[in-house]
Every structure is written in C-alpha cells, then in structure tokens.
C-alpha cells in the first residue's frame, strides 16, 4: 500500500440481512484530491461513507484510512484517527441545543489547555471560513436556513483541521446559487488546507465544478473511477444515462466551463 | 464570498504521514533575545504552549507543520505588530487565507449590566405572560366561534372526530380516574376515622368523605389527570401536524383548522370531563364506604343514610367546575400545539409546557371557584 492514498478500501462487503449492498468493493481516495461518489438511490453511497468512518459494521474487507486499518484499532488509536477526519452530515447534524459557535467549539474542547478565548476565537474563525457571516455565531440551528446549516456543519467538521473531509450530499436541497457557492467553497478550502475530500453527491454540477475524480457505484461495487471526460466515454447503460441525460448536458454547457 | 489565496495543484503544505496522533505533535520554542524561534508543529494541539504575551519577532524557519489554528495565532500576532521571519511560501499563503477570515476586533469590554439584565428579563417575562393570556383568550374565542358555526351549519361539524376524541380523552381515562378516586376515598376514610375517633364522632367521617370528594377532590384530581393525559396528547397531535405543515395544507384546501382540529377536541373534553368527574365522585364514595365499613363498622346502608343527609349542593358545586376545567385544558393544549415551530425540539418543549400550564391553570381556577362559592354561601 502506498502513502499517496488517504483512504484505501479493499474487498468491502456490506450486508443488511439478505440484502447485499456492497460486494468486493475497491476504492481509493488520493491525498489532496476531491473524489465524487455517485450512484443511483439505494446503491449504498452513504453506507460506504458510514463504513469508512466506522459508523457501520462491515462484513468483510479492509478499510485503511491514513495508513491505518479501521478494523484493528484500539479505542485510543481510533480516537486519534477520528481527530484527523471531519464529517459533514446531510443536514449539518448540528446539536440543536447549542449555538453555531458552541457547535464548532465541541470538537475543540478535546484540546487540553486551550483557553476559552482561543477556543471561541478559533470557532469563529472556522465559522467565517465556512462562509457564514459573524452574526451567525450566536444563532441556533433552528434559526438557520438549510444552506447555512450545511455551512455550520462544515465549520464543525473543519474545527480540528482534519486531513480528510467527508461530505454527505453537500448541495442537496440548496438553490443553484447557494450550491454553486458551496462547490467553490469546497475547492477553496481544499486548496488552502490541503484536504482530501470524499464527497457523496447526486449533483452533476458539483461533480463538474469540484471533483478531480469520480467513482460510480453500481452493481454493488465501484463500477468505474476517473475524471469527468473518462466517465463520458464509459459504455455502461446506467453510467451513460447518468452522464448523458438532459441534466448532465445542462451541467456541461460551455458557460459552466468558465465558472 | 471569501477569497482564498490560490495554491498550485500538487504541492503539499505538510508532511503528515509520520505523525499518527496529532495530539502528540511537539512544538519547539527557543528564545533568542527578542526573537522566538518556533520549530516542529504549530497546530491547534500545540497552541496552548505558546506564550500569552506576543514576542516582537517570531522565527519560523524550522517549522514543518502548521494548521489554521497556528496560522490564526500568527495572523493575530502580525496584526499586533510582531514580525514574522523565515516564513515558507505555503505557510505564508495559509496565514493570508486565515487573516482574511479573522473578524476585526470590535468586541469591546462588556459593561457590567446585571441589574439592567434582570430588569429587562423581568419585563420581557411579564409582557410575555400578558401576551399568553391574550392568545388564550383568542383561542377561546376561536373555539366559541367554531362552535356557533357548527350550530348554524351542522353539516360542517365532524361527528366522527368528536366521537373518536371522546373515546380517547374519556373512555380511556376511566380506569385511571376510577382507581385514583377510589384510593382517595380510602385514604380520607382512614385518616378521618383516626382523627374523629378522638371525639367519638366517627359517624361524621361520612360527611367528611362526601363533602371532600364531591366538592373538591373528585373533580380536581380528575381534571389534573386529564390535563396530564390529554393536554399533552392535544399538543403533540396538533404540534406534529403544525411541524409538517399539515395545518397550512389544510388551510389551502379550504378546511378551517378551528373547525376540524380544535372544535372536536375541546368539545370532546367538554362532554367527557363532567362524566369522568361523576365517575370519580362515585368511586371516591365507594372507596370511603368500604374503608368506613372495615375500620369504623359503619355498614354500607348506614353510610347511605348519612350520605342522604349531605346537601346535594356539594355535588353540584363540584360538577359545575367540570366544563370550565375542560375548556381550560382544551384551550391550553390546542394553543400550545399551534405554537410548535418547524423543529422537533419545540414540539417537546411545548408539550411539557402545555401540561404544566394546564395543571397550574386548573388549580388556580379551582381556587377562584372556592372563593366565589364561599362568598355566595354555597
């Protein structure tokens, strides 16, 4: 195994009762890249994400994150590893009884001896970097719009400067302008913080604007990985339909190229 | 939108693979005159080791790793006039990026405003409480208006819904109301017997039980039980509909929520609470009679004879309160349901506050009834 991959999944099998979701699935996330994971509903995109971060018990297979095998970690090693990744859930998954700043402070509380003013300052920095205005700091999640909740969730995921960022449907439910801004934010953060990003999405525009590589989940495994242009050349019915459908053509019109 | 310093693809800022646990990262500091040399890793984990008082110069030539927390420290140090020396390009870019996101320090010292805050909070609470009474009055009005409309246009009235809610709030509450009231009768007889025996006035235990149960305890405890059961159920059912915009959908379909939701629920309470109160009276008297028989040897027939001498006005004074309690519980429950917002948290908050407010309001109303009845000499 090489040191260039942030995540390596080999021979993964996930099964719920009789229902096999993944079988013999291989996937790599390279350091510093944004990998978009796509697939139809029920192909287990979110299950794959949850398996990698250890929220799902897998049946078979190896998952190595930053060179460490997820399955064979002691709880202390796991805790250390969890500080090197950040996860943004679909609707932000913010703690509803805490304000946005307090939500971002939660992971920072793991840092021993960090003074209150430093913790608050760093939390506000992350909130600003996620593109939220300063007055969002003291708001509760229920007072925020969907897009702002996602940004706040991103700020919390970035709190400890992780090396890997997991994003579950970051643009679902956002208006096109908000989604576009979020896409650019992800690229900017990746460039500034040298993140490796694992991005589950349905959004063709997102794939087009920010992903370096795309992995297509179908038939219980990763059917293909590659750049957008490589995807266009693949001759699988679902992949073809996905990347050549009317929505795909709209996402790839020239004025998008300049964006 | 924030602008970030761009970085050519493929360059790496850090060499992380060597450190497995970021918590174990080390930061080396050497003081050299007014120059503080930093080496190793300047991360959020090593941030607390840095001096509180900013040095005039910081040397960064030996630094291999830096994250946004480190960049934040350096950006603020630079803002305060510290010179940063030996900065690598990638680290400089990160500091630029972070500096653009650092909020300008406008946060002045917060003045000591404790008294001001207490006064402000008290004022807000008082206004809030007055507003609450105003809203409850509005709900009462909406209920009465819906009722009048139902009387004028009986076809709009939902009988099935009324019957269903009568079953839910009435029939299903019968066992708990019955058992509770029976036990209250038992307790009264037992305690009353112990006290009255000292004066040889055991037989007055019947009057004690009859007046206490018929006038106060039967209906009050029934109302409290129903407030606990039904007010929470009303808030939860209406609130979850409110949460999922079902009530807005209803309005767009030309259905009046007052008519469809509030009227049958409050009316069901109005029908069933007096019946439950009557049942509670009977159960309380039965319990009292049983216990008198066991402890004081007052036979059931003797109990009945004594009971006949108790004025019927006590029973009436008790049951007259039932419809008032019913409306209080119903209006508070429905109002709380309508106040639920879009989040699940507010549903839980409103449900518990509906129960507390309903029980509290029932007890206050009972106290007012006591005063009014005693003034009227009933």
Automatic annotation (TrEMBL), chain A:
<dbReference type="InterPro" id="IPR003593">
    <property type="entry name" value="AAA+_ATPase"/>
</dbReference>
<dbReference type="InterPro" id="IPR027417">
    <property type="entry name" value="P-loop_NTPase"/>
</dbReference>
<dbReference type="InterPro" id="IPR003439">
    <property type="entry name" value="ABC_transporter-like_ATP-bd"/>
</dbReference>
<dbReference type="Pfam" id="PF00005">
    <property type="entry name" value="ABC_tran"/>
</dbReference>
<protein>
    <submittedName>
        <fullName>ABC transporter ATP-binding protein</fullName>
    </submittedName>
</protein>
<keyword id="KW-0547">Nucleotide-binding</keyword>
<feature type="domain" description="ABC transporter">
    <location>
        <begin position="7"/>
        <end position="244"/>
    </location>
</feature>
<dbReference type="GO" id="GO:0016887">
    <property type="term" value="F:ATP hydrolysis activity"/>
</dbReference>
<dbReference type="GO" id="GO:0005524">
    <property type="term" value="F:ATP binding"/>
</dbReference>
<dbReference type="InterPro" id="IPR017871">
    <property type="entry name" value="ABC_transporter-like_CS"/>
</dbReference>
<keyword id="KW-0813">Transport</keyword>
<dbReference type="InterPro" id="IPR018247">
    <property type="entry name" value="EF_Hand_1_Ca_BS"/>
</dbReference>
<keyword id="KW-0067">ATP-binding</keyword>
């Amino acid at each position: 195994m090489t040191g260039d991959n942030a995540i390596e999944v080999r021979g993964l099998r996930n099964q719920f009762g009789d229902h096999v979701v993944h079988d013999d699935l291989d996937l790599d996330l390279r350091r510093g890249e944004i990998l978009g994971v796509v697939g139809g509903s029920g192909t287990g995109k979110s299950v794959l994400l949850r398996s990698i971060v250890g929220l799902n018990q897998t049946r078979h297979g190896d998952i190595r994150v930053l060179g460490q095998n997820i399955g064979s970690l002691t709880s202390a090693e796991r805790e250390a590893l969890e500080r090197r990744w950040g996860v943004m859930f679909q609707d932000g998954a913010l703690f509803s009884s805490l304000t946005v700043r307090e939500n971002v402070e939660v992971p920072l509380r793991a840092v021993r001896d960090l003074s209150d003013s430093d913790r608050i300052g760093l939390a506000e920095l992350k909130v600003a970097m996620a593109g939220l205005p300063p007055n969002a700091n003291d708001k509760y999640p229920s007072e925020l719009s969907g897009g702002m909740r996602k940004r706040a969730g991103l700020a919390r995921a970035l709190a400890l400067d992780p090396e890997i960022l997991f994003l579950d449907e970051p643009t679902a439910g956002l208006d096109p302008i908000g989604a576009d801004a979020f896409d650019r934010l992800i690229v900017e953060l990746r460039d500034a913080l040298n993140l490796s990003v694992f991005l589950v999405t349905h959004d063709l525009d997102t794939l087009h604007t920010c992903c370096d590589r795309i992995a297509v989940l179908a038939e219980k495994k990763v059917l293909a990985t590659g750049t957008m242009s490589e995807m266009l050349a693949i001759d699988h019915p679902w992949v073809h339909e996905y990347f050549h459908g009317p929505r795909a053509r709209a996402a790839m019109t020239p004025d998008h190229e300049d964006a | 939108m924030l602008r970030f310093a761009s970085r050519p693809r493929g360059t790496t800022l850090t060499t992380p693979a060597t450190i497995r646990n970021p918590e174990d990262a080390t930061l080396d500091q050497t003081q050299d005159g007014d120059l503080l040399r930093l080496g190793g890793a300047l991360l959020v984990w090593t941030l607390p080791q840095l001096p509180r008082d900013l040095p005039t110069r910081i040397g960064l030539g030996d630094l291999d790793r830096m994250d946004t927390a480190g960049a934040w420290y350096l950006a603020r140090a630079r803002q305060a006039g510290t010179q940063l020396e030996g900065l690598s390009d990638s680290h400089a870019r990160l500091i630029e990026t972070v500096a653009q996101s650092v909020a300008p320090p406008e946060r002045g010292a917060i003045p000591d405003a404790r008294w001001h805050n207490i006064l402000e909070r008290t004022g807000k609470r008082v206004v809030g409480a007055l507003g609450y009474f105003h809203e409850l009055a509005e709900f009462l009005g909406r209920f009465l208006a819906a009722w009048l409309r139902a009387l004028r246009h009986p076809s709009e009235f939902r009988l099935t819904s009324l019957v269903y809610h009568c079953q839910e709030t009435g029939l299903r509450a019968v066992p708990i109301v019955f058992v509770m009231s029976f036990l209250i009768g038992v307790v009264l007889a037992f305690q009353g017997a112990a006290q009255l025996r000292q004066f040889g006035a055991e037989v007055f235990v019947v009057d004690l039980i009859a007046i206490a149960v018929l006038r106060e305890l039967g209906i009050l405890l029934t109302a409290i039980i129903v407030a606990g059961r039904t007010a929470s159920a009303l808030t939860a059912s209406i609130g979850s509909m409110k949460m999922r915009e079902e009530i807005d959908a209803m309005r767009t379909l030309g259905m009046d929520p007052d008519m469809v939701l509030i009227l049958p629920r409050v009316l069901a309470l109005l029908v069933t609470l007096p019946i439950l109160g009557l049942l509670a009276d009977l159960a309380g008297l039965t319990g009292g009679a049983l216990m008198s028989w066991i402890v004081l040897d007052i036979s059931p027939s003797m109990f009945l004879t004594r009971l006949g001498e108790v004025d019927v006005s006590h029973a009436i004074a008790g049951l007259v309160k039932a419809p008032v309690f019913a409306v209080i519980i119903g209006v508070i429950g429905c109002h709380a349901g309508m106040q639920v917002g879009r989040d699940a948290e507010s549903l839980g908050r409103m449900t518990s506050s509906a129960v507390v407010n309903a029980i509290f309001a029932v007890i206050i109303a009972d106290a007012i009834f006591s005063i009014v009845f005693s003034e009227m000499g009933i």
